[in-house]
């Protein structure tokens, strides 16, 4: 178990590569339990690669990654997710051919019981009223900002220990960015640590 006053994740001297192309060089940082860390930099700086590496989508070629006291350096993404790491990416991560409610139902049935489903759906709609108004709408027809809110709603209702948010503001209008970051603040307030990856300060 992690110390509530300690770090939920520790990244020490990590390298990573895409085939022969080395993308990360000796990266080290920590994420406090319940805290917020931002990786900010220009396109191509390695921010998203760092996010993918700590979630297991890219394999580290050197260094150590510990989550909640467990060495996850060589663990696959699904095992890291089961330990309590969730990821929301710029690509939105919704099932476009399902409705808003079907997207939420699919997630909530995987993470909770059937008895909790109705309560979890109502919590999602209370937190993000725009989704409640569009519960029967196909997710693929939502705006980019609404799709990001749908991704966040899945996380907010059943909070993970750590959420990795990768460039959620990319291509969004300022007013929509505010809504997305209000959603992130709700998730943090529920006790989830955040790693926020952005090209610029928002």
Query: If you consult CATH, what is the topology?
Result: Rossmann fold
According to DSSP, the number of beta strands is 8
| Helical stretch tally | 7
Percentage of residues assigned to helices: 25-40%
Instruction: Give the quaternary arrangement of the chains.
Output: single chain
At CATH level 2, the architecture is 3-Layer(aba) Sandwich
User: What is the rounded Rg?
Assistant: 17 Å
Break the fold down into its secondary structure elements and pairings.
Elements: E1 7-18, E2 21-32, E3 36-40, H1 47-54, E4 60-67, E5 70-71, H2 77-83, E6 85-89, H3 100-111, H4 114-127, H5 129-132, H6 144-157, E7 162-166, H7 174-189, E8 193-198
Parallel strand pairs: 3-8, 6-7, 7-8
Antiparallel strand pairs: 1-2, 1-4, 4-5
What does this structure look like?
It is a single chain. The protein has a single domain (7-197), classed as P-loop containing nucleotide triphosphate hydrolases (Rossmann fold), CATH 3.40.50. The strands form 2 sheets. A 4-stranded antiparallel β-sheet has the order 2-1-4-5, covered by helices on one side. It is α/β, with parallel strands linked by helices. Helix 3 packs across helix 4 and helix 3 (100-111) packs parallel to helix 6. The longest helix has 16 residues, at 174-189. The model has no long low-confidence stretch (mean pLDDT 89). The chain has 7 helices and 8 strands.
């Amino acid at each position: 178990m992690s110390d509530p006053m300690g770090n939920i994740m520790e990244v020490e001297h990590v390298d990573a590569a895409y085939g022969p192309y080395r993308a990360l060089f000796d990266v080290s940082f920590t994420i406090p339990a319940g805290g917020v860390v931002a990786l900010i930099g220009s396109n191509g700086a390695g921010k998203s690669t760092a996010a993918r590496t700590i979630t297991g989508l890219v394999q580290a070629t050197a260094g150590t990654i510990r989550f909640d006291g467990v060495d996850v350096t060589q663990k696959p993404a699904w095992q890291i997710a089961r330990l309590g790491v969730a990821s929301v990416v710029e690509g939105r991560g919704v099932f476009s051919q399902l409705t808003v409610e079907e997207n939420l139902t699919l997630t909530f049935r995987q993470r909770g019981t059937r008895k909790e489903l109705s309560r979890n759906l109502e919590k999602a709609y209370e937190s993000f009223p725009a989704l409640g108004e569009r519960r029967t709408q196909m997710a693929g027809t939502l705006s980019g900002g609404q799709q990001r809110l749908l991704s966040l709603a899945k996380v907010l209702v059943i909070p993970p220990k750590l959420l990795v948010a990768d460039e959620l503001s990319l291509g969004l209008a300022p007013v929509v960015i505010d809504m997305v970051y209000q959603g992130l603040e709700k998730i943090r307030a529920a006790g989830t640590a955040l790693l926020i990856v952005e090209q610029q300060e928002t």
